[in-house]
Amino acid sequence: MTRQIVLDTETTGLSHEQGHRVIEIGAVEILNRHTTGRHYHVYLNPDREVDAGALEVHGLSNEFLSDKPRFASVAMEFLAFIQDAELIIHNAPFDVGFLNAELARIQQAALKSHCAGVLDTLKLAKELHPGQKNNLDALCRRYDVDNSGRAYHGALLDAQLLAEVYLSMTRGQDSLAIDLGGSPAAGGVATLARPEVLIILQPSPDELAAHGAYLEGLAKESGQAVDW
């Protein structure tokens, strides 16, 4: 089964190299391209002041964070939740850099040692929509994901929104099982295995409605009618 964790953090400032810390972690589980309802969420005491600019973004004050646990006390629980999963992160270098800095402080291996890899949805969005805004708010609008409750950035809320955006953004890109009829290295040709019985599955009314909504989104995005 394919297990993915959509992850986001909030921090005291923009640079972990300047000593800024993680103050919130939010993570949402996806299993076989379906959100499971399982999530991980924690606020953290950073043992330092929150920058004024960061406070305006996430609204997490020094007073609010003062009685929260330190990263060291929740690290094993966090690592257990993400263990062996692919991480889905928007602007991944930012979050990965901060989490690696936190792990280094407690003599733990870097994030890549605990997960199956990292997919950066910002990079993916730029490839799909070059020259357009690709922040989370813009992607929510583009893929009709309701972000009306996002007055501030919040790690769990943003992870939940990103999970919906990611699933919409990658719809139709599921891998196909392919039976190799010959070795390409030996001059063979990869062929699809033909089933003995062709099974035709009729879409449900909900699936037809979802497909119609998807086509409307494509038409809106491309500016022209979509006939399939």
Keywords:
228 residues, Nucleotidyltransferase, domain 5, 7 strands, 8 helices, alpha/beta, globular
Overview of the structural elements:
By secondary structure, the protein is an alpha/beta fold. It has two domains: 167 residues, 2-Layer Sandwich (Nucleotidyltransferase, domain 5); 44 residues, no CATH class. A five-stranded mixed beta sheet has the order 3-2-1-4-5, sandwiched between helices. A two-stranded antiparallel sheet has the order 6-7. About 11% of the residues have low confidence.
- Taken from the alpha-carbon principal axes, the silhouette is globular
Mean residue pLDDT: 85
Number of domains: 2
Specify the CATH class of the largest domain: Alpha Beta
Distance between the termini: 31 Å
Mind describing the biggest β-sheet? Answer: 5 strands, mixed
- CATH superfamily placement of the largest domain: Ribonuclease H-like superfamily/Ribonuclease H
What is the beta-strand fraction?
15-25%
Number of strands: 7
Q: Give me the CATH architecture of the largest domain, please.
A: 2-Layer Sandwich
Low-pLDDT parts are: 175-200
What is the string of helix and strand elements? EEEHHHEHEHHHEEH
